[in-house]
C-alpha cells in the first residue's frame, strides 16, 4: 500500500508540473498587452514601460517560467498586477473559501439523495421508477449549471418566493441558517448537475454487484438481504461512485463559475473573470492552477480510498 | 487438382469471406438503425434537435419579428415588456422580440459546437491511436500531458485563452478574424485529450488481437495497420464518443457565451441572452432569462437522449 501511495503522489506532482507549464505557456504565448490593459488606454507610454519592467514582463521566458515554478514550491506567487498591494494568494483566499462553502452545501444536499436514488433505481431495474430516475438524472446532468440556476432563480426564487433569487452581501452577517436562504438556490443548481452523474454510477455499480456470483453465494448461504446489501453490494458499488464523485468535484469547479455569475455570488468566478478581463496574469495563472490542484487532490484521495477498500485496484498502477 | 485450381479456390474463398463480412456489416448497420428507431428517447431527441436546427437555418425568414432591430415598445411603457399577444415571449431590455431571438438563437451554437466536437474527434483519435498503437515512451510522455490537460477545468482554460487572445495578426490569420472559429479551436483543443484517452484505451484492447498481429506479420506498414485495420474496428466507440462530445461541446460553448467570452453580440445566442437578462431578475422581470434557458435545456437534453441511445445500441 505504501509503495502505491508514494507512486501515486509522485505521478501527481509530475502532472502538476506539466499542467502549470501548460498554463504558463498559454499565458505567455497568447498576445495580450497586460501592462496596457491594467494601466488603461490613456496611460503614458513611459509608465507602461516602467510597469512592464517592474512586474518582470521584460524578463526572458525562462526567468518568468522560473518565477512561477518557484511560486509553486514556496506558495508565494508575488503580487497581483492589478492590485499591487495584494499578494496573489491572499487575494484569492476569501473568494476561494466562499466557493468552497457553496460546493460543500451542494455536496451535502446531493450525495445522500443521489446515492439513495441510484440504489432504488438498481433495485427496481427497468421498471417505471428506474426509468424515471434515469431520465431525471440524464436531464439534470446534461443541462448546464447556469441554465439550471437561472430556471431555479425564476421558479423557486421569483415565482414561489421560497429562497432569494440573487445573492446579496447582507447574507454574510446572517446566521448559517439565515444564509441558507441565499445559498440554497445556487447550491441546488450544482446539486442537480451532480445528482445525475452520481445516481447513474451508483445504479450501474449496484446492478453489477447484484448480478455477481458473490452476491448470489451470499444470499444462498443465508444472509439476510440487508446484510447482503451492506456487506457485499454497497462495498463494491462504492468504488465507481467514489471515483465519479471526486471527478465531479473537478467539474464542479467549472460549473460553479456559471452558477456564481447567475446568482451574483462573490466567489472564485468573479475574481477569475476580473483577472482575465484585466489581464492580471499572476492571479489568472494561479487561479487556474489552484482549480486544477483541487481536482487532482480529489482524484488522488478517491484513488487512495478505493485502493484501501479494494486491494485489486492497487495493481492498476503497475499495469498502466 | 492442379496448382492453379488451388489458387482459384483460394481466391474465391477470400472473395466469399470479403463479401460475407460486407453483408454482415450492412446487416449490423441496419439492425442498429432498427433498434435506434425503436427507442423513444432517440425519436424525441431527433425531433427536438431537428426543430432547433430548422429554426437556426430558416432564421429571420420565419421569425415573427426582426430578431436584431425590432425595437417595439408600444405595448408597454418601457421595455422589457412582459409576454403578451403581440410578443408571446415578451421583449428584451431594448425592446427586441424574445420569441424571434430564441428561434434564431441556436444558429451560432449549432454551428460552433458540433464542428468543435468533430475537430476534437479527429485530432483526439489520431493522438489516441498513436499512443495506443506505439505504446512505449511516446505513449508515456503523451499520457502525462493528456493527464495534465484533463486536470484543467475546461471552462477556466476557455476563459483564459479566449480573453487573452484579443489581438494578434497570427490569430487573426488562422481564425479568419472570426470569434466563432476561435471558439471552435479552443473547445477542440480542450476536448482533444479527452477523446485521445478514450481512443487510446480502445486501441490498447485491439492491438494484440489476431488480425493486427497477422497484419504485422504480413509486413504491412504501421500507418496501414492503424488506418485500415484498427480504425474500422473501433468506429463504434468513436461514434459514441462523438455524440457524447457534441453534447458536452454545446454545454461548454453555451457556458462560455454566458460568461461573456464565447459567442459575442449582437448574436441572439441563448447563453448570451441569459447573461444580458440576469440583472433583470431582482426586478421580477423573468422572461428575458426564462425562455432562452428553456431553449438550452431542451437542446442539451435532446442531444444527450440521442447520445445515450446510440451508446446503448453500440454497446449492446
Word description of this protein:
The complex is a heterodimer of chains A (320) and B (316). Chain A contains 13 helices and no strands. Chain A has 320 residues and is mainly α. The radius of gyration of chain A is 24 Å and the shape is globular. Chain B has 316 residues and is mainly α. Chain B has helices at 3-38, 40-58, 98-104, 106-134, 136-151, 154-164, 169-175, 179-206, 210-217, 222-233, 235-258, 270-277, 287-314. The model of chain B is unreliable at 1-6 (pLDDT under 50). Helix content of chain B is 74%, strand content 0%. The longest helix of chain B has 36 residues, at 3-38. Chains A and B meet through helix 1, helix 6, helix 7, helix 10 and helix 11 of A and helix 5, helix 6, helix 11, helix 12 and helix 13 of B.
Features:
heterodimer; A: about 325 residues; mainly alpha; about 0% strand; globular; B: about 325 residues
Structural class of chain A: mainly alpha
Poorly predicted spans of chain B: 1-6
How many helices of chain A? The count is 13
Largest interface: A-B, 53 and 51 residues
Rg of chain B, alpha carbons = 25 Å
Strand content of chain A: under 5%
Overall pLDDT of chain A, averaged? Answer: 82
SSE series of chain B = HHHHHHHHHHHHH
Major sheet summary line of chain A: none
Tally of separate helices of chain B: 13
Would you summarize the structure shown here?
By secondary structure, chain A is mostly helical. Chain A has 13 helices and no strands.
Write the layout of secondary structure elements.
The complex is a heterodimer of chains A (320) and B (316).
Chain A: H1 2-29, H2 34-39, H3 45-55, H4 61-74, H5 88-123, H6 128-142, H7 145-159, H8 176-210, H9 213-220, H10 225-262, H11 268-278, H12 281-309, H13 315-319
Helix pairs in contact in A: 1-4, 1-12, 5-6, 5-8, 5-10, 5-11, 5-12, 6-8, 7-8, 7-10, 8-10, 9-10, 10-12, 11-12
Chain B: H1 3-38, H2 40-58, H3 98-104, H4 106-134, H5 136-151, H6 154-164, H7 169-175, H8 179-206, H9 210-217, H10 222-233, H11 235-258, H12 270-277, H13 287-314
Helix pairs in contact in B: 2-4, 2-13, 4-5, 4-8, 4-11, 5-8, 6-8, 8-11, 9-10, 11-12, 11-13, 12-13
